[in-house]
Write a structure and sequence with these properties.
80% helix; 240 residues; 9 helices; mainly alpha; two-stranded antiparallel sheet
């Protein structure tokens, strides 16, 4: 009877340890390696908005005395998506998406250059228009490469550093603070590289200041949306 009881108790302990071990093992795995079901979706949107913005940026838009480029319509959303990537998946994953965006942009720029260089068919009468819109994309790609790499990496780095210091608190400070730093660097580098020698310095300053203020304003206005998206993605990726 004593032996049986010891065996039962011993078996109970073994069973308890067997049940508890996976739970303890699950916790660090769950915290350090969240599911990535939405990562590809966010990255595809991120890269798509970047590509479309590079093309749209070839046109200057006049709003009274203010001048912005066409890329300002979608480009601020790349920073919002960049915030989602950095906040949910970390700096390494955000950096991966940033570099992937430029691989696609480089490919698009090469394709546009090749298509413009090919001789048009006799029936095709829009060669000049095609070159006017897409022929400048390589220059804008270089400007975007310089500004975007610096800006987005700064954005992701600042966001994750603030999170490391304050934890999950003050999400608004991470989102706005990182965007201010990233957008300032991005907009300045892009506008100078893309437009120097093409337009006056007064126009470049106008583009830089208005573009920066516009992008940061969009980030602030859409802050509730960013909060909601981050919440949904975090909840989904944390689900077991």
């Amino acid at each position: 009877m004593v032996t049986m009881n010891i065996a039962e108790v011993s078996g109970g302990k073994d069973k308890t340890r067997g049940d508890a071990s996976p739970a303890r093992g699950d916790t660090p795995t769950h915290q350090t390696s969240p599911r990535r079901g939405y990562f590809d979706v966010v990255m595809v949107l991120f890269v798509s908005f970047l590509l479309l913005s590079n093309i749209g940026a070839t046109k200057l838009v006049g709003l009274g005395d203010l001048i912005v480029d066409g890329g300002a319509i979608l480009f601020p959303l790349t920073y919002i998506l960049g915030d989602v990537l950095a906040e949910v998946y970390g700096f390494t994953s955000a950096r991966r998406a940033i570099f992937m965006g430029f691989i696609i942009s480089a490919l698009a720029s090469l394709v546009f250059w090749a298509v413009a260089a090919l001789p048009p068919a006799a029936e095709y009468t829009n060669q000049a228009a095609f070159e006017a819109v897409l022929g400048v994309v390589p220059r804008f790609f270089i400007a975007s490469l310089a500004g975007y790499i610096v800006g987005q990496l700064l954005n992701a780095w600042v966001l994750t550093r603030i999170k490391d210091r304050w934890g999950d608190r003050h999400l608004w400070a991470r989102l706005i603070g990182s965007s201010i730093v990233g957008e300032a660097a991005d907009t300045t580098i892009f506008c100078v590289t893309a437009w120097v020698g093409v337009v006056s310095w007064g126009t470049i300053v106008n583009l830089t200041v208005v573009g920066f203020l516009w992008k940061v304003a969009v980030e602030i206005v859409l802050l509730p949306v960013t909060y909601a998206v981050i919440g949904v993605v975090k909840k989904h990726e944390s689900a077991s």
